[in-house]
Design a protein that fits this description.
14% strand
Length: 133
């Protein structure tokens, strides 16, 4: 994955931010909306695209667009930097392939301990019964 290539494929859009901020909110478009078209990406190969689409399935639209918003700051530049950083972290996490789990045998000591515990509980419950004459 080449970060510079991917960043060049991003689309940014400045929108008016919601919430508190007084007159600044009504005048300045400081919220940044990032869109990334996974299907049209030239920076990612097919395997990476499949991996990202499976891992980020809940975040992708039906057209395989990834949309991220940022309106944390009053500055459009800072919001753009924040949303780009968040996007790159998200992509890097999605591209990590988990290690395959190796099945291991249950140790004999663990099995013996479980059976011993079962016997103890059985004896305790058996001792609660009324004796038969």
């Amino acid at each position: 994955m080449e970060a510079k290539k991917i960043i060049s494929e991003l689309n940014f859009k400045a929108v008016r931010s919601s919430g508190a901020g007084g007159q600044n909110v009504n005048k300045v478009s400081s919220k940044v909306v990032l869109t990334f078209d996974l299907n049209a990406s030239q920076a990612l190969n097919e395997e990476e695209k499949i991996l990202i689409s499976t891992k980020l399935a809940t975040k992708l639209t039906s057209e395989n667009l990834l949309i991220l918003n940022c309106d944390e700051d009053r500055s459009q530049l800072k919001n753009k930097a924040n949303v780009t950083k968040r996007f790159l972290e998200l992509i890097q996490k999605a591209l990590v392939v988990p290690k395959k789990r190796k099945a291991t045998k249950v140790p004999r000591s663990v099995i013996e301990k479980r059976i011993k515990e079962k016997r103890n509980i059985s004896e305790i419950k058996g001792s609660r019964k009324k004796p038969e004459f």
